[in-house]
Design goal:
The chain is mainly α. 35% of the residues lie in helices and 9% in strands. The strands form 2 sheets. The chain has a 3-stranded antiparallel β-sheet with strand order 3-4-5. A two-stranded parallel sheet has the order 1-2. α2 links the parallel β1 (24-25) and β2.
């Protein structure tokens, strides 16, 4: 987990991972839920997170191991921004799996099931989407009908910048961090500093009216 205490050591940790022959190094961006609440005072600022994610991007092509962040959906926005600066279009043919994956996949192509059968968006967001035991173990029904899952797939329902950002389809923001920060899992990603080029629908309607 990237914190104030270790952010300056990421370079050395990466070097060590390469030296010992690690297959991958996946720095984790803090999600202040559960035990993560204990690290809340150690979280770095959104500006610092932006610098860390750009640094990770800059190392990716020079390494013999896989290196990408975890629970950092806006990395996929940065990835595409930086590739665009180089005149590259991100496609499966040119970038393989990196072009096909995305930031937050909770409720869209991924779900978490607890040891008690509780179905959630992810392990960090305890909002219940269904219960396998009460649903006669019919996960398909929960997956297709859960109001929470349906909201996750309707990004027009997202609030704040995440609701109108041009990168929302590849990022989506961290729903667990949004909930931990504001109590609303549809709210904007609190660690992101990007200001979308698109305008929110409310602003467009005001301009038109």
């Amino acid at each position: 987990t990237v914190t104030k205490q270790n952010v300056h050591e990421l370079g050395r940790i990466l070097e060590l991972a390469v030296e010992v022959g690690a297959v991958a190094f996946n720095p984790f961006l803090l999600v202040p839920t559960g035990r993560g609440k204990e690290l809340a005072k150690q979280e770095i600022s959104p500006v610092e997170y932006e610098k860390v994610l750009n640094w990770i991007y800059e190392q990716r092509d020079e390494l013999p191991i896989q290196f990408k962040p975890t629970c950092a959906p806006h990395y996929y926005r940065i990835f595409r921004q930086r590739e665009k600066e180089k005149g590259r279009t991100v496609t499966p043919d040119t970038h393989g799996f990196e072009a096909m994956t995305k930031g937050c996949m909770g409720g869209q192509s991924f779900a978490f099931i607890s040891h008690t059968g509780k179905v959630q968006i992810c392990g960090f967001l305890e909002t219940e989407c269904g219960d396998l035991r009460r649903a006669n173990y019919n996960f398909e029904h929960i997956w297709q009908t859960s109001p929470v899952f349906l909201q996750m797939r309707d990004q027009d329902s997202y609030h704040g910048r995440c609701g109108y950002c041009e990168y929302r389809n590849v990022c989506g923001g961290c729903r667990a961090r949004a909930y931990a920060t504001t109590g609303d899992y549809l709210d904007e990603e609190p660690y992101c500093i990007y200001e979308p080029k698109l305008k929110p629908k409310s602003a467009v309607m005001e301009a038109a009216g």
